[in-house]
Amino acid sequence: MGSRAALDFEAAIRDLNELLSRKRPESFSSAWIFKHAPQCYRFIRRRVRHVSGRIDWDLVTYALERKFQRRWAPRRRGECRISYRNRAEVDILLNAYRDKLYVFVASADAADRRIRELISISLVRLAQNGNITAKREVLSLVGLTVNDWLERHYLLSRWLVYEEELRKQIEGCIRRYRYTGSFLNYVFRTLEYAGRGIRPFYAYSLNEPIHGGAQQQSQQSPQ
């Protein structure tokens, strides 16, 4: 996005935030934006495009104030989607970020984490449309980040001996993810919450004592 387009994008987001503050809808969608802010809609349709060619509503809603993000109500996808495999569709996305895939292993700063979110959400949307190849790519890339969490976060470390259930939890996140906040935070909180019912794996060891809470559960957000 060029500098002029970036300025226009910032103006469109500012106008949408002001409109949402004034109208206070319980939810909003692309149709709502078209009705109440046709000029913003036309700009978004022309200039805010994903590498796949579709309108990038994730980029738009991610830029809105946090209080409005959860009110986004995209067009509902039918439950009966036809599954398909399309490597080319996935490669179009990944090729745009090929030199940035390290962010799933080591994110140095907020900019890296932002790129990680863009890649993750884009792949999740393809997976939700039925692309099995995209789903596998999410499981692979996000799995790298999750493996790091398992090493660094006490509560999440309980998943270390439940690989199959861990995979099912991530698949569930892919299927359920709706609004365009952080997908990685959504996965982290899902695993954190679900992990509370799992006994620490070391509790089953006959050679190691049960530490009875000596370690503190991490309350940090994923990095």
What can you see in these coordinates?
The protein has 223 residues and is an all-alpha fold. It has two domains: 3-69; 87-200, no CATH class. Helix content is 57%, strand content 0%. The chain contains ten helices and no strands. Helix 8 crosses helix 9 (163-176) and helix 9 crosses helix 10. 25% of the residues are buried. The model is unreliable at 203-219 (pLDDT under 50).
Using DSSP, what is the number of strands?
0
Given helix and strand content, the structural type is mainly alpha
Q: How many domain modules? A: 2
Helical content, roughly? 55-70%
Bulk shape? globular
Question: Could you provide a short overview of the structure?
Answer:
The chain is 57% helix and 0% strand. With 223 residues, the chain is mainly alpha-helical. The chain folds into two domains: 3-69; 87-200, no CATH class.
